[in-house]
Specification:
alpha/beta; Arc Repressor Mutant, subunit A; Rossmann fold; 3 domains; seven-stranded mixed β-sheet; six-stranded parallel β-sheet; 16% strand; elongated
């Protein structure tokens, strides 16, 4: 066997023993013992131990020996994914599939916790149950998309506390568990919603739209950092362009409320563009506008957010902010792995990924001339 490959064989053998729990609760054998065990030189053993360190499986303590890291102590190979409303948000269904793939490639299995659609108390009860079940099954880490409706902060904190109490690392996606401007102690992975709001405004300004409204679909902002940030970016861009922004620009009527939408678009401030909380809301709004005899985008341009498959297939096809689901899944997984390896290290991180605007017929129309508009950085046509 070539000297160059001997250390890899030793490292792999030790890794297999670690995975099998052979060294649970005790240190690895000394260098001298490993030299005798494998019949190799001390330098080969040292390179093998260094390889295990690179993998994050062991730590060396001067004068004391080599010990398993938190990652090396893994016993279940299980991770938890807790997304209470995945069934009602297509973007999180896509995320669930993607994170399962990423985990499987790294040798992990995800347990999924998804509360059935119901009233707030029922959803909270089911989510707590999933959290306790994850803890009882000794998952090694959890990715959690917090409940975002108003009044859920207490529940989110309780759920996070279940994992913190037993030392299970937690990474949040999409939103924090506390209301802004407070900040929790956990890492967050999501998109830069402020930039997304600015990007939407820039796109609409470029098309000559000046009366922009934001449709909440009758949902309160609550402590949802993502929605607030997107609205902040949009409103800030409007004001920076010298235009007015106030409460009348935020519509809280449901997208499928025909009478409510009629009132919203026929009042003195009649929007020529409506930005929606997500794609599902935007698609329902376009159906309502069509029923009211309003043309999209000729009379009113419509923009969504998420980039779900139906946004491309809707009529007209929907301009939207595209959530980079694959990248979010990879970043969330790697962030969780980092916390599993080092549960005490560093301040909470906020990893905000860029999300491009995909310009489609709901803002630029379907004719060839409309599609020749100048596309700026961060905006693409589809």
């Amino acid at each position: 066997m070539a000297d160059e490959t001997k250390y890899k064989v030793v490292a792999k053998s030790l890794e297999n023993d670690i995975r099998a729990g052979k060294y649970a609760g005790r240190s690895l054998p000394s260098e001298a013992q490993l030299v005798r065990q494998f019949g190799v030189g001390r330098k080969t053993v040292q390179r093998a131990i260094l390889e295990l360190q690179y993998q994050g499986l062991v730590v060396r303590r001067q004068g004391k020996g080599t010990f398993l890291s938190n990652l090396g102590k893994r016993t279940t190979g299980l991770l938890g994914l807790l997304i209470p409303d995945a069934s009602s948000a297509t973007i999180f269904q896509s995320f669930s599939r993607e994170i399962a793939r990423v985990g499987q490639n790294a040798g992990y299995t995800f347990l999924f916790g998804e509360a059935a659609v119901g009233d707030a108390e029922s959803v909270a009860l089911q989510t707590r149950k999933f959290a306790r079940d994850f803890a009882a099954r000794h998952v090694e880490g959890v990715i959690f998309r917090p409940l975002v409706d108003e009044g859920y902060e207490k529940v989110n904190l309780e759920i996070a506390g279940i994992f913190k109490k037993v030392g299970i690392p937690l990474v949040l996606i999409d939103s924090d568990i506390v209301s802004s401007p407070k900040r929790s102690e956990f890492d967050i992975v999501g998109i830069n919603n402020i930039v997304a709001g600015q990007r939407i405004a820039d796109h609409l300004f470029g098309l000559g739209r000046r009366r922009i409204a934001f449709l909440m679909d009758a949902s309160p902002l609550g402590f949802s950092v993502n929605l607030r940030s997107r609205l902040f970016g949009l409103a800030g861009a409007v004001v920076s362009a010298g235009m007015e922004w106030n409460a009348k620009h935020v519509l809280t009527v449901r997208a499928d409320d025909v009478a409510g939408i009629r009132r919203s678009i026929c009042r003195r401030y009649s929007p020529d563009a409506i930005v929606c909380a997500n794609d599902a809301v935007a698609i329902r709004l376009m159906q309502t506008l069509s029923f009211l005899g309003k043309r999209v985008p000729e009379d009113i341009a419509v923009v969504g957010c998420d980039g779900i498959d139906s946004s491309r297939l809707s009529v007209p096809s929907l301009t939207t902010i595209h959530q980079p689901v694959e990248q979010i899944a990879e970043e969330a997984f790697m962030t969780l792995m980092s916390r599993i390896r080092n549960t005490t290290g560093g301040n909470p991180r906020e990893i905000l990924l860029d999300a491009p605007l995909v310009a489609r017929s709901s803002t630029i129309g379907s004719n060839s001339c409309a599609r020749k508009i100048r596309i700026r950085k961060g905006i693409i046509t589809s």
